[in-house]
Amino acid sequence: DFDNDGILHSIILIFLTTEPARVRVSVRVRPRNDEDLADADSYDCIELQPEVKRLKLRKNNWSSESYQFDEVFTESASQKRVYEVVAKPVVESVLNGFNGTVMAYGQTGTGKTHTVGRLGKEDPSECGIMVRAMKDILATSGSFNVEISYLQLYLESVQDLLLPEKNNIHIAEDSKTGEVSLPGAAVIKVRDLDHFLQLLQIGEANRHAANTKLNTESSRSHAILMVYLQKTYQGKAENEKSSLTKHNKNDVPARNGAPMLIKSKLLIVDLAGSERIDKSGSEGHMLEEAKFINLSLTSLGKCINALAENSPHIPTRDSKLTRLLRDSFGGSARTSLIITIGPSARNRAETASTIMFGQRAMKIVNMVKLKEEYDYESLCRKLENQVDHLTAELER
Ligand code: ADP
Ligand code: MG
What we know:
Layout: H1 4-10, E1 13-22, E2 24-29, H2 34-38, E3 46-49, E4 54-58, E5 64-68, E6 71-73, H3 79-95, E7 100-106, H4 112-116, H5 129-139, E8 144-154, E9 157-160, E10 172-173, E11 180-181, E12 188-189, H6 193-213, E13 222-234, E14 259-270, H7 277-280, H8 287-308, H9 320-324, E15 334-341, H10 348-361, E16 365-374, H11 376-395
Parallel strand pairs: 2-6, 2-15, 7-14, 7-15
Antiparallel strand pairs: 1-16, 3-4, 4-5, 8-9, 8-12, 8-13, 10-11, 13-14, 14-16
Helix pairs in contact: 3-5
Bound molecules: adenosine-5'-diphosphate (ADP) and magnesium ion.
């Protein structure tokens, strides 16, 4: 009788690839809406130069400032194109074993939910990033196990949108790896795309019900979809090709026939409106509550600033949102941010602040890591079988 645990635990996690990957930032402008059109004094304060990925913000009639982004989407950009540029590279990376984040940031009414969360029930060509990402994940050949959690973060409290009875979910952190998990949240195995659409719809209904009860709007809360991917495969002997989906530099080398496990996580985040609460006149909220609503977004802004300035201290522990996004900014995930803005000068102050948030995020470089583990359970099973086999041999 010998103790496997000690030996195996010490070798269970291997980081195979570590490489720098800058946070990608795209900007999307929504079409002029009725309010923009009805406002006689309003004019467009932004000018897009999509071919050079630049955006000009008119400060007044005489001066404007120009900003560089990774991509600039005009009001006529299709949902499909936005997905392909913003999210698809992250999804592919997650399928290859890296963690990934896609997040939308912007003022209420500028198209975050349209971009990220739209189901496209009436018109499937209009569905957003969550649905398209899941479609690609489920269509990938190979034995992936796909599970999701769907959460809302409001007033520093995490609510489960799939299991609404659970409304104060604890955020746990692994003391060694720093990995964040939500042990109390429902984790549901996704069977197919229809099943996923049902789950999203349930989530939306629960979000609506919870917000009615709390007397708030969904623009005040963050919606967070977590997708957990897991793939087991047999490590090949040296010199043999790996069994992963793609043969590129992210590919996993041979592991001498050991059963291996690749785990990765995709976070898709539809943030609360970035506008300052006191300006938008939220009725029925006390000042203290308004401060609390702002806390997570304010903390996120502080972390982005600190990271952009290479500050030695990043205040990730200040809010639930920044704890949840620890891996996404300054961590090991591949991250793509889409900022959404309105075209009209009416919103100039919020538009300028959203642009600055995006500009700072572009300076952040994450160190993406491919995580591979020995499949501990099947390795133990294999060892036990070997021991049984040897014992039988000896007794013969
Ligand atoms: P947010 O989630 O940022 O508050 P929404 O996604 O709810 O904003 O968008 C507000 C409204 O504008 C919705 O009716 C949405 O359909 C519309 N809209 C936003 N972006 C676009 C776009 N790019 N094309 C067409 N309609 C859009
Ligand atoms: Mg929204």
